[in-house]
Amino acid sequence: MPMNQNGTKWSENVIVVDADYVDGVAFNLIVNFERMLGRRIPQADMARWLECVALDGGVREGEQETSVVLIHEKEKSHLRNFVPSDYAADLSGKAFGSPLGEFVVNSVDVEEITTKENMFVDVMTFVASQPDVKRLMLVPDENINGLNDRIRRCLQRVDDEKRVTLFSMQPAGGGPYRQEILGYSLMSALGIRSEEFNR
Question: Pick from 71, 111, 125, 178: most CB atoms within 10 A?
């Protein structure tokens, strides 16, 4: 994982995800859309979802690297609503190619000495401080009281040249970042097409 501070060059693009949260959102979307559309909804395609997040975060086609940090509770070994899903076997330390460049995925479990909320803020703050990082995409758990306020305060000190995008299901209030609706990228990863709603 590129969290060391020994002079390692960071990717220009970094996606930091509360993986437990996004897995829960994917589950809710699957249940609701199966009922609404009257068909089975498959698990979300992780690579497709990350590509959509990157596009929403301003990444465009080309030879570049995007680092992905999936933060999850220690007792959770895999995602239930994504493929691939197993952190150790399928995701952490793995990479995949895309028209947007190479995506390098790492998973981090929350140690007992901290909370997932604190770890998310710590990782986000560290990544945002790296001069090589130009685009930072954040998918926090918006259900944690006060987390968006903490994120907003931490990002006040970030270089104005960095493009920071916050993904949530509901508008998160003003801050030093762009906002995108998380549901759109997840719908694409779940294979849900807009024309299905016009029947």
Answer: 71
Query: Around 109, how many Cα atoms within 13 Å sit in the side-chain half-sphere?
Result: 14
Distance in angstroms (rounded) separating the CA atoms of residues 91 and 105: 6
Give the amino acid at 143.
Answer: N
Residue found under tokens 């990157």: 54
Helix (H) or strand (E) holding 17: strand 13-18
8 A C-beta contact, residue 140 and residue 147: yes
The residue behind tokens 């190619």 is 97
d(CA 47, CA 84): 8
Exposure class string for 27-41: b at 16+ Cβ within 10 A, else e: eebbeebeeeeeeeb
Hey, what long-range contacts does 124-129 have (CB within 8 A, 24 or more apart)?
A: 124/16, 124/151, 124/154, 124/155, 125/154, 126/3, 127/10, 127/14, 127/16, 127/69, 128/154, 128/155, 128/158, 128/162, 128/164, 129/158
Rounded CA separation 157/150 (Å) = 12
Q: b/e string for 162-187 if b means 16 or more Cβ within 10 A?
A: bbbbbbbeeebeebbbebbebbebbb
Q: Could you report the per-residue pLDDT of 53-80, keeping only the tens digit for each?
A: 999 999 999 999 999 999 999 999 999 9
